[in-house]
């Protein structure tokens, strides 16, 4: 392989076999190239060494950066773990416990009401008292028509008089809306009819001469009364201006003028009404409970 040399005068490349420079015509045999050849041979190894050192420096810097990032990450993770085991989990547990405590405060377990009268069969009218459970701002609501009581049902305020078969249901509700289970008891009331009532039913046309009691009786039955039979069938009895309408809300079973008799000496609370070929035994006792008994069945004031 021919070695290259350079013209000492102009610096142009010259083949080793050429004597004269092709650029300036200089006679190269007048010069000694031994030192230049050695210098060229030394330059290339030095250049390679410098490139290797530069590459090594860059690799070292990259490694330092990677190691530094790893060390910083480890320090951050270690710091978080130290904080967690020192205070973090305690704060977390307090937050969770606080939420649970608030829910527990709002969700109170309320015991159901209790009754003064046990379930069973009775041959006379009975009085039931409802005792509300312990707690703050608890109210008892009840029904006697078989439906489940809600906050819109009748509020218990005084003893309940039972004169006919009754299913008594009640539920306790506090100010936050927490509710107890429903307390349900069925009572069978079979009241023996008195001789006076029997006589009244036998002779319904016998009218009392006591005008005051008759007026009181009409006032007591005036209005619409809702009766729920044991089968669940609902009837409405409307006594108004001497006329009786018996309806289920869609069909009228009775719609005619009525006559009535009373049992004297009862302040116009007991009597019978005859209309359309039907005779109804009426008992308005006790007064003030917004209910009457029609043929022994409870009927609540509707409107």
Radius of gyration: 55 Å
**Major pleated sheet:** 9 strands, antiparallel
State the end-to-end CA separation. Answer: 128 Å
The secondary-structure element order is: EEHEEEEEEEEEHHEEEEEEEEE
Kindly estimate the percentage of residues that lie in beta strands according to DSSP: 25-35%
CATH classification, class level of the largest domain: Mainly Beta
Mean pLDDT: 80
Q: Any overview of this molecule?
A:
- This protein is an alpha+beta fold.
- It contains three helices and 20 strands.
- The chain folds into three domains: 52-107; 114-189, Immunoglobulin-like (Sandwich); 195-301, Lipocalin, CATH 2.40.128.
- The chain is 30% helix and 30% strand.
- The strands form five sheets. The protein has a nine-stranded antiparallel sheet with strand order 15-14-13-12-20-19-18-17-16, with helices on both faces. A five-stranded mixed sheet has the order 4-11-10-7-8, with no helix packed on it.
- It starts with a strand and ends with a strand.
- Mean pLDDT is 80; it is low at 33-46 and 202-209.
- It holds the Pfam family Zn_Ribbon_1.
- InterPro entries: GH29D-like_dom, Zinc_ribbon_dom.
- Residues 118-184 form the GH29D-like beta-sandwich domain.
- Residues 6-26 form the Zinc-ribbon domain.
